[in-house]
Structures are given as structure tokens and as C-alpha cells.
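Pipeline run #58 for the internal structure catalog. This entry was flagged by the ingest filter as a single-chain record with no existing model, so it goes straight to prediction. Upstream metadata was stripped on purpose; only the residue string is passed forward. Reviewer on rotation: M.T. Logging verbosity set to normal.
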Amino acid sequence: MKNFTTNRIIHGDATAELAKLPDNSIDLIITDPPYLVGYRDRDGRSIANDRNPDAVLPAIEHMGRILRDGSYMVLFCGWVAIDQFSKAWTDAGLRTVGQIFWQKSYASRTWHTECRHESAWLLAKGRPAKPEAPVSDVREWVYSGNRFHPTEKAVDILTPLIRAYSKQGDTVLDPFSGSGSTSVAAALTGRNSIGIELEDRYCTYARTRLAGVSRYRDRKAAA
């Protein structure tokens, strides 16, 4: 039973805040956690806990608990720590049902290759109903500009996922909210949302963005 407030960005640690949510209360999780690689962008910006699995992986156990049976989770994840992430989601009772790739028009240099894609794992709890319009597993990347966050995902990346794997009125959760793109995409597609963000500056950005799109949605509904 859902007995919590939605359409908000919580400032706090993901694991601690997820522990407060009831079992089987979330309809869809979309999240882009720290990849555990010590990432820095071109401007030198970094991400909290990006080399600390003990601050990231325990949150996945709670995600499995609070996700409603028969629902999906989309987890953006690089390959470097995939063994740790996959063990965490398997232990949480989630199973892999697909992988989605976004092809980029530019490359991020790594030690051995030039990386021209982003990827996410499509996970399921139980046996979800087949989506009416599943997304393609190879898609075109939309660059966000990373204005608000060093690994910001464009809203246009997230809205097709939300439409495919949830229904209007559902609650979408992002425990590593960053600049709030998931919450914005949820609002634009008629879903409720909860975001959790550890870093104060990004939490502030996310709240501002969500408030702006909520006002726009309310004006449009009243017109």
C-alpha cells in the first residue's frame, strides 16, 4: 500500500531513504548510479561515492524490496563494475530481461577503446506483463549538455522508457536522482515520482526543474 508523498526530491543517502519506503510500493525504477569508476568530466567534475561500492550497492537490495511484483527496473551501468552490480541485483531478487544501447555520435576515450555508446540493463521483479510498445534495444543517444550534472541524462532518453514500462498515474523512482531528469520525464508523461539525491547542489537543481515542469503541466491542464 502506498502511504508516502510523491512528486518530490529527497535530499539524503539512497540506502537510508529507500529503507523508509514500504515493500511493493514502486511501479518503475529508472536510475543511473555511480558506476564505481572514479569518473571525472572534461571540467573536472566528479560524482560522490564513485569509488565506494559500500555506499552504492546496498541500495539495490532495497530497490528489489520496494519494487512492485511484476514491474521493471532500468539500471544504467558501465562494464567496469558489472560483476558487482549484477550480483547485487540478483541477490535483490531481480532478473535480467534485456539490455538497451544508445549509440553516440562522439567518443569517450578509455584505456583500450573509444566508447561510443551508453547502456542500461532492463531488470524485472517477478513476471511483468509484456509492454504494449517495447523500446528498441539500440537507440540514438540524445546529448543533454551536462549543464546541471556531469552524467546528466536527457529527458528525451528517459521518456520512452517510462512510457514503455509504466502506466499513467504510476510512481517512478530514481534513487540516484542527480539533476532530476527522471522526475521531469515522469511529470511530462503523467506519472508520479520520487527522486533521492545525496549532493545538495544537485538536489537543488532537481527540485527547481521539477517545480518548473509541474507548473507547466498544471497550466496546460487548466487551459
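catalog note: Residues 200-222 form the longest helix (23 residues).
catalog note: Residues 8-222 form a domain with the Rossmann fold fold (CATH 3.40.50.150).
status: ready for reviewer M.T.
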